[in-house]
Amino acid sequence: MTTGASTPTHPARPRRSRLRTFLPLGIAAWLVLEIWLLTVVAGASNGFVVFLLLLAGFVLGAVVIKRAGRRAFQNLNEALQRGEAPSDSRGGGNGLMMLGGLLLMLPGLVSDAVGLLLLVPPVQKAVSRYAERTFERKLRAAAPGTLGDAFQQVRIHRPDGKVVQGEVIRDEPGDTPQDPRPPLTR
Fold first, then answer.
1. What is the Cα–Cα distance from 37 to 26, expressed in whole angstroms?
2. Which residues sit opposite 153 in a β-bridge?
3. Domain total of the chain
4. pLDDT digits over 68-101, tens only?
5. How far is it, in rounded angstroms, from Cα 90 to Cα 109?
6. Of 174, 171, 155, whose CA–CA distance to 163 is shortest?
7. Which region ranges are annotated with the description Disordered (predicted)?
């Protein structure tokens, strides 16, 4: 028997992106591979050798991060003394060196190998060019024009899951707020 009341409809959930779907699976597969390789190396030699490998990777990673940070700070300091904007053109690759050092500090042999690869200058240049091209392509696809245009559209997520689109309106320096009400007179 129906009472005539309509059943509530639930809004369709937005589709998950591929990155949100496969990133956890990729991290889990990477962790399993790292643990498996460490057990293979420990079985071929002993646990002390694995400990020394992990300790050496951690120390080398810390040295690389410290060196890259000093170089980045030195480049920033020199650029500010010359009175120009800091650029990564002269000392280039500090960010990738820091990433390589961080990967060396993480326990595991695969992360150590990738970290060591990121310390090689030709690999740094290739990764940097690839990342720059990818960033430019994604930026062009997101919004035509300048980088400022990319941030003009805002999405507000309401608690019920609906997305409200809006536009950012900035106050210009010369604008003065005006009260729409007339002043009170006595």
1. 16
2. 167
3. 1
4. 989 888 888 888 888 777 665 554 578 889 999 9
5. 32
6. 155
7. 162-186
pLDDT at 163: 61
The residues, ordered by sequence, that sit 6+ positions from 80 with a Cβ below 8 Å of its Cβ are: 86
Diameter of the chain by CA atoms? 96
Assess if residue 56 is contained within a domain: yes
Q: Report yes or no on 53 lying in a domain.
A: yes
Average pLDDT over residues 158-172: 63
pLDDT of residue 138: 78
DSSP three-state, residue 10: coil
Name the more confident of 142 and 99.
Answer: 99
Q: Which of 7-16, 109-118, 174-183 tops mean pLDDT?
A: 109-118
Please name which of 140, 84, 107 lies closest in space to residue 35, comparing C-alpha atoms: 107
Query: In terms of Cα–Cα distance, which of 54, 123, 122, 125 is closest to 114?
Result: 123
Cα radius of gyration (the chain): 27
DSSP letter for 50, please.
H
pLDDT at 19: 83
Structural domain boundaries enclosing 93: 31-119
Is residue 182 a part of any domain in this protein? Answer: no
pTM above threshold 0.85: no
Domain membership of residue 136 (yes or no) is: no
